[in-house]
Design brief:
Elements lengths: L5 E2 L9 E5 L3 H13 L3 E5 L2 H11 L3 E5 L7 H10 L6 E5 L4 H9 L4 E4 L4 H15 L7 E4 L2 E4 L4 E4 L2 E3 L3 H12 L5 E2 H9 L8 H13 L8 E4 L3 E4 L6
Parallel strand pairs: 2-3, 2-4, 4-5, 5-6
Antiparallel strand pairs: 1-7, 7-8, 8-9, 9-10, 11-13, 12-13
Length: 241
């Protein structure tokens, strides 16, 4: 058991170099800020030619590749990366929802795709899975805190040895809290991380989901998930001892 009752059973994936090939400033800043907070190193390329140069020069651990770029499209970039014999994991990032575009990207050698707008936590889960699969980083799929066990691969959660059912949003919230004990997350940060950078609805949705999550994990006072009034929420694993 680690400090404050928290145990990850893992070697951190942090430190892996992620190359983001994307020309939209809002998305690149969103990704750079979030990924760096998770401990990743991040390099941004705003066009395909620069992206290809960085692939050759930096040998990144993973590439996040937009399809719509100002010069060469993501399909062409993916094809060229694979033609060089590189097996760097590639996640295609696209606003297109057509199945044909997704199939084309996978056929050209992409490992995964995610459609804009996207949840940052979903993207993180895909990054971790690809880094594990590629052998470029190693991490256990199991997170433990007090009597809660969370499996990031099967997306199952156990409390005191008994399986509990969480919605995808509740699971993402719990995983985020467990990975960052004692950090205070504002509602706005939680909305960006879980609901997506383009969410424009009522921030009260955060409070509703936190309430449901507390009920399901039996989080009674003194709480694991503590409210910081006027600010947001933080996770205190020592409170569950």
């Amino acid at each position: 058991m680690g400090k404050n009752g928290f145990e990850t059973n893992c070697r951190s994936l942090g430190g892996a170099l992620i190359l983001v090939i994307e020309d939209e400033d809002t998305i690149t800043e969103f990704l750079k800020t979030g990924l760096k907070y998770e401990g990743y190193r991040v390099t941004i390329a705003k066009d395909g030619v620069t992206g290809l140069d960085y692939v050759r020069e930096l040998d990144p651990d993973l590439i996040i590749l937009d399809i719509m770029l100002p010069d060469k499209d993501g399909f062409e970039i993916c094809k060229r990366v694979r033609r060089r014999g590189s097996n760097i994991p590639i996640i295609m990032l696209t606003a297109k929802k057509e199945i044909s575009d997704k199939v084309k990207g996978l056929d050209l050698g992409a490992d995964d795709y995610i459609t804009k707008p996207f949840s940052f936590e979903e993207l993180l889960a895909r990054i971790r899975a690809l880094l594990r699969r590629s052998g470029r980083a190693v991490e256990s799929t199991e997170l433990r805190v007090v009597d809660i066990v969370l499996n990031t691969e099967t997306r199952e959660v156990y409390k005191g040895g008994k399986k509990i059912s969480l919605t995808p949003t509740e699971f993402s919230l719990l995983e985020l809290f467990i990975r960052h004990p004692r950090r205070v997350f504002t509602r706005e940060t939680l909305l960006n991380r879980i609901w997506g950078y383009d969410y424009t609805g009522d921030t009260n949705i955060v409070d509703v989901h936190i309430s449901h999550l507390r009920d399901k994990i039996g989080d009674k006072p003194p709480r694991l998930i503590r409210t910081h009034y006027g600010v947001g929420y933080a996770f205190y694993p020592e409170e569950g001892k």
